[in-house]
Amino acid sequence: MSQKAQSWTDRLEETLIASILGLMTVVTFANVVARYGFNSNILWAVEFTVFLFGWMVLLGASYAVKINAHLGVDAILNIVPPKARKTLGMISVTVCIIFSFLLLKGAWDYWANFANLPATTGRWFPTGFEEKFRGKGWYETDDVPMPAILGFMENLFNDGDEYEKLPRLLPYMVLPISMALLLFRFCQAGVKLWRGEISMLIVSHEAEDSVEDAAQYVKDN
Fold first, then answer.
1. Class of residue 178 by CB neighbours under 10 A (exposed 0-12, middle 13-18, buried 19+)
2. Between the N and C ends of the chain, which has fewer C-beta atoms within 10 Å?
3. How many helices (H) and strands (E) does the chain have?
4. Beta-strand pair 165-167/120-121
5. Which segments within 124-209 are labelled E, that is strand?
6. Mapping DSSP to helix (H, G, I), strand (E, B) and coil, where does residue 198 land?
């Protein structure tokens, strides 16, 4: 990926995550105003912000891998030679890839039936897809209203019946999407480690720097 394309995708992900956070803030603030200013309530606000929070956290996890922003313990990495550090890094990223693959399988299996799609077979690794399953495309959220613009989904997932609330397949969609992104980002990190472009998956000394900054702030004030 070129530097320009990578910068564009970075901005896209950052804008999406920031927009989700901003929307959460607006909806929560509006609900507070409605409750204490007008003795009313936005019924769907809490459930909606919970879904948004889930999207923000799960998408943010994969983005943090991309920009090498996750915190970790580097005590051992700092005392071993570069060759051993690279070996330990490759072992770590391999474990992360396997773990994120398992998360992706679980995420797909949980979400698939809500979209009238088959889950995978196999306890740990997928061995195929279910031949028989009960579609749950009709399953709605508790309070979030169904936007009119999404009316086309009724024919696709609900046999033409009208949705009164937002179908759960939409907010739950972040599960397979975010886990696929997480797997992809760890694969990218593995390639960078192998090429020597990065030396570890974590942010080195970030926690120590934060403690030192806090200590300096206390001392100055």
1. buried
2. C
3. 7, 4
4. unpaired
5. 128-129, 140-145, 165-167
6. coil
CA angle 73, 11, 66 (to 5 degrees): 25
Which residues does residue 71 pair with via DSSP β-bridges, in sequence order? 203
The two tokens of residue 59 are 């998408």
Per the structure block, which two tokens stand in for 212?
Answer: 């030192």
* Helix residue ranges per DSSP H, 39-132: 45-66, 82-112
Q: Are strands 128-129 and 120-121 parallel, antiparallel or unpaired?
A: antiparallel
Per-residue pLDDT of the chain (221 residues; tens, 9 = 90+): 555 555 666 677 888 889 999 999 999 999 999 988 888 888 899 999 999 999 999 999 888 888 877 767 666 677 777 788 888 888 989 999 999 999 999 999 999 999 999 999 988 888 899 988 888 999 999 999 999 999 999 999 998 899 999 999 999 999 999 999 999 999 988 998 888 887 777 765 555 565 566 566 667 76
Backbone φ/ψ region at 144: left (φ over 0), alpha (ψ -120 to 50), beta = beta
Which single residue is written with the structure tokens 């696709």? Answer: 156
User: What is the SS3 assignment for 173?
Assistant: coil
